[in-house]
Design brief:
Layout lengths: L1 H10 L8 E7 L3 E7 L6 E8 L3 H11 L2 E8 L11 H14 L4 E6 L3 H11 L4 H4 L2 H25 L1
Parallel strand pairs: 1-4, 4-5
Antiparallel strand pairs: 1-2, 2-3
Helix pairs in contact: 4-6
């Protein structure tokens, strides 16, 4: 199956977009960012930015890079209802759409991304001190959000 997907990506290489997809894991203190490659095949952690600096950072980033879509984690509870975190993320998303109206902003379920990020760090063999780095957790969480988005986008294309 992996070989099939690799072959399919090579065949579709010329048809892929040369624009990036940026994912945001928005928190009250920090914002984790991840981005795809230009072929939109691989999700990579980008950085973590203090919440007060995110719009300025994005303005600079968008001036240098061609971003097609911004994916923002959507915090949901176990019953798929908006969680408490929505009260500060939703206004951010509204502000994001206003600041960058030419870029599509999409939302995706972010349940368990922090736990998945911590597990990924454990699986990678990172020492306890490295696993306590909240900025690294935020960047990995954004990468997981982006990977989930890319997988759901791929499933939609197949249907």
């Amino acid at each position: 199956m992996a070989f099939y997907n690799l072959a399919k990506n090579i065949v579709n290489f010329g048809n892929k977009s040369s624009q990036l997809i940026l994912a945001i894991d928005y928190g009250q203190k920090r914002v984790g960012l991840a981005v795809t490659d230009k072929e939109q095949i691989i999700a990579n952690g980008l950085t973590t930015v203090h919440v007060k600096d995110i719009i300025s950072y994005l303005k600079d980033y968008f001036a240098k890079e061609d971003v097609e879509v911004i994916v923002v984690g959507k915090p949901l509870d176990m019953k798929s209802r908006a969680s408490d975190a929505s009260r500060f993320i939703d206004p951010f998303v509204k502000h994001l759409r206003k600041q960058f109206p030419w870029i599509t902003v999409e939302r995706i379920d972010e349940r368990f991304t922090s736990q998945m990020a911590t597990k990924a760090m454990l699986d990678a063999g990172l020492k306890k001190k490295a696993r306590q780095n909240k900025e690294l957790v935020d960047t990995i969480s954004a990468t997981i959000i982006l990977q989930s988005y890319m997988e759901s986008k791929s499933k939609r294309k197949k249907e």
